């Protein structure tokens, strides 16, 4: 792939900021956010520089507060009315982008006399390092893509590339109850980028109506069935031609014409004598032809993660994500099979496919599934009971050795009690109690008590409390000063 670099120059100090951020977050992959205020030029012309500058200051303060909250993101540069920022987690970048749009809607609603703010946001992610050193050219290309994606958006919109959506999908699905949704607008050619890029929009249902980019030409996808259809048509024409040629030779001769020439009137031809007939021969026994080996072509196989066949081996296909048709390199026998890929240690997509002898054109219908997860925070407050109880009911699938689905209905209860350690009042003492019930049967119950000695800023503990061949359950907690963060949940076995 060849791609022109962006026109944004990064000096050593700015690159050092990026490098320091990604090292602190322990990652070599960053999500780039590019924002732009819509209508800034018009506002300046109509309201003047002083007013527009005040609005820019308000805009910058609002966005910076959301982006950099809890150290999740880092603002790198202000470019006029635009902001360039980076995040270590794509799901956090999407969350903060949606939060920005929500805060702007709130501002517009509560400040009817002010000029209406409208911001467009683009997100793209990728690896920015080579041998653990930040590469300015690679980082610049990712910034360029984020900028181009943002340029397709309109005010109030959040546009993302496939990599961002795929990596954040687990978080997005978990937020469906909050009416957070996404849609694909198709593939578009962006300036300076060779191949077309698929553009997705993430939005709040009922608050934003998704809209396709305007003023740019959408790339028309080629049908993955076009090549096989053309081949079938060509073969059909050849067969018709052969049949026509054979039939034309087998047509009867014209009446009155014999093999020796025209007949003579009044002359009766001599009777013909039938040649001796050979003795009947028994028909040959036909050997049944072996069924052709299955060949599997996946249509629109855009999965970036590793896909596994029948929970056993990694599925490898020709080409790359985004290709219309990808032939499976991994042999797949005729019959029913199961595919899955992981978004995280607790989010997975499943699909069932059926393969027949010969050529197969398959478009797997992947369905979302996730394991239970309770994630809670609690803080000790002087004079209060400081006892907290949480519960979660969750249904998910596991599979037996023959890929048959097993439905699991799990009920989890987690309680946290915080107090001052009787042995040392300066220490935090935490008690964790939990119960996990699957399909009406208790599979685990436990209690842990732990304390954080005074002067230690943080303590982290993780313990597996139940496991089988498919998945396991764990409890993980952090103690920090007078607070705790607790997670009780499940993970797939390969993440143990």
Could you explain the architecture of this structure?
- It is built from seven helices and 28 strands.
- It is α+β, with helices and mostly antiparallel strands.
- It folds into three domains: 12-215, Nucleotide cyclase, GGDEF domain (Alpha-Beta Plaits, 2-Layer Sandwich), CATH 3.30.70; 297-369; 371-495, no CATH class.
- Helix 3 (49-68) packs across helix 4.
- Residues 253-268 have low confidence and may be disordered.
- The CATH class of the largest domain, by name, is Alpha Beta
Number of domains: 3
Approximate strand percentage: 35-45%
CATH H-level name of the largest domain... which superfamily?
A: Nucleotide cyclase, GGDEF domain
Parts with pLDDT < 50 across at least 5 consecutive residues:
253-268
Major sheet: 8 strands, mixed
Head-to-tail CA distance between termini: 37 Å
**Annotation field: number of helices:** 7
Overall pLDDT level = 84
Quaternary structure annotation:
single chain
Question: Total strand count, please?
Answer: 28
Strand neighbour order, sheet with most strands: 2-3-1-4-7-9-8-10
Q: Name the CATH architecture of the largest domain.
A: 2-Layer Sandwich
Give the helix/strand class: alpha+beta
Radius of gyration: 34 Å
The helix fraction, in percent, is 10-25%
Q: CATH topology of the largest domain, what is it called?
A: Alpha-Beta Plaits
């Amino acid at each position: 792939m060849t791609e022109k670099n962006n026109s944004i120059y990064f000096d050593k100090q700015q690159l050092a900021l990026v490098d320091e951020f990604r090292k602190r977050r322990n990652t070599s992959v960053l999500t780039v956010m590019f924002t732009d205020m819509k209508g800034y030029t018009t506002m300046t012309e109509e309201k003047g520089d002083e007013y527009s500058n005040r609005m820019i200051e308000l805009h910058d303060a609002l966005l910076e507060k959301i982006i950099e909250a809890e150290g999740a993101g880092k603002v790198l540069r202000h470019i006029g009315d635009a902001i360039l920022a980076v995040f270590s987690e794509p799901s956090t970048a999407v969350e903060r982008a949606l939060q920005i749009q929500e805060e702007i809607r709130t501002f517009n609603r509560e400040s009817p006399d002010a000029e209406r703010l409208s911001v467009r946001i683009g997100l793209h992610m990728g690896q920015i390092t080579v041998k653990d050193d930040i590469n300015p050219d690679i980082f610049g290309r990712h910034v360029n893509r984020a900028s181009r994606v943002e340029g397709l958006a309109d005010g109030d919109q959040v546009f993302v590339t496939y990599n961002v959506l795929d990596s954040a999908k687990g978080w997005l699905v978990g937020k469906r109850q909050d009416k957070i949704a996404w849609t694909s607008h198709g593939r578009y050619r962006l300036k300076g980028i060779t191949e077309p890029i698929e553009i997705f929009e993430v939005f709040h249902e009922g608050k934003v109506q998704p809209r396709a980019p305007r003023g740019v030409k959408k790339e028309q996808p080629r049908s993955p069935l076009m090549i096989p259809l053309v081949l079938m048509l060509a073969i059909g024409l050849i067969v018709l031609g052969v049949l026509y040629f054979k039939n034309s030779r087998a047509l009867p001769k014209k009446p009155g014409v014999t093999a020796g020439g025209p007949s003579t009137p009044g002359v009766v031809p001599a009777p013909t004598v039938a040649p001796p007939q050979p003795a009947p021969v028994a028909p040959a026994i036909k050997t049944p032809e072996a069924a052709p080996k299955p060949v599997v072509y996946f249509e629109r196989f855009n999965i970036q993660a590793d896909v596994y066949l029948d929970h056993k081996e990694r599925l490898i296909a020709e080409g790359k994500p985004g290709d219309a048709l990808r032939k499976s390199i991994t042999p797949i026998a005729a019959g029913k099979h199961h595919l899955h890929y992981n978004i995280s240690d607790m989010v997975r997509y499943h699909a069932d496919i059926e393969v027949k002898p010969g050529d197969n054109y398959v478009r797997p219908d992947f369905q979302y599934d996730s394991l239970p997860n309770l994630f809670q925070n609690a803080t000790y407050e002087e004079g209060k009971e400081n006892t907290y109880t949480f519960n979660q009911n969750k249904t998910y699938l596991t599979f037996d050795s023959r890929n048959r689905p097993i439905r699991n209905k799990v009920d989890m209860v987690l309680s946290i009690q915080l107090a001052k350690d009787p042995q040392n009042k300066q220490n935090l003492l935490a008690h964790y109690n939990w119960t996990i019930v699957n399909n009406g049967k208790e599979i685990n119950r436990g209690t842990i008590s732990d304390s954080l000695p005074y002067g230690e800023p943080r303590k982290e503990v993780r313990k597996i409390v139940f496991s089988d061949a498919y998945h396991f359950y764990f409890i993980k907690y952090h103690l920090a000063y007078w607070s705790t963060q607790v997670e009780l949940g499940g993970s797939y076995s390969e993440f143990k």
